[in-house]
Amino acid sequence: MSKTLLINAFLVVIGFVFLFPLLVTVTNSFMPEQEILLHYRTDLSLFDRIHGIEERSVFFRLIPQNITLAQYRIVLFDSPLFLMLLVNSMRMTVPVVLGSLIISLLTAYGFTCWRWKYKEILFFIYIVVMLMPLQAVLVPNFIVADWLGITRSHWAIILPGIFAPFGTFLMRQSMKGIPAECYEAAQIDGANELGIFTYIVIPQMKSGMTALAMLVFIEYWNVVEQAVIFIRDFNMEPLSVFLSRIADGRMGVIFAASSVYMLFPFLWLFAGQEHLEKGIELSGLK
Prior knowledge:
Elements: H1 2-28, H2 33-40, H3 46-50, H4 70-76, H5 80-113, H6 119-131, H7 134-148, H8 155-162, H9 165-175, H10 180-188, H11 193-201, H12 206-221, H13 225-230, H14 239-242, H15 251-271, H16 273-283
Helix pairs in contact: 1-15, 4-15, 5-8, 5-9, 5-12, 6-9, 9-12, 9-16, 12-16
């Protein structure tokens, strides 16, 4: 019992360490600008220099003395640029999620249910590409995007995301959990490939599909490297890239904008946490 209690206490401490920056961001978003400057300003005054002080520590405050919603009013109502960049993030993320679900399901079905030569070799290539770091595939992606003439548009980010091999890998691992008897029974009843895919596979893949949608959403909601390389017009940048520039140095607005930015993936994860855990469990990922 004591060992279990120690393990749980350790996990709680680790969890708090990871959540603490998010907690500070959210609570400080309700703090007045003057109070933020009082606690976070590090500029040395003439009085400090006279007394030989060369450094000044930052003393953050978790709970604000005065609560205000002024920063949220600035972000949501007085800054149309913020909403425009938020829409840009949605315009890139939603097509990737939907396209990845469609392509990954169809490809995984071909890898799982069809028997054809060199299937395992091709799937092994999928895994190799999936394990390659992003920096290794950015140059080939840029070359292909330049050939297609989409280097300065969102499509340069959307298309590689739709055809990313991770979705096929995750869907195939989940699809392997469907008993072979289901396919055989459907074939005996006269169902064709489209019927098997529609009425047998998809209903049993809801958890895996939800897990894939959530993981892809979070990855492309926080996209940075691809946007920096492909997007040259700041009006087309996603909020993840432009977040540090929309506040003009006002820390309170930065905290509020960051909190709104985190709200979408947080709600997405909170709503589908059960499906995410089940989908990853069925896929065999650790």
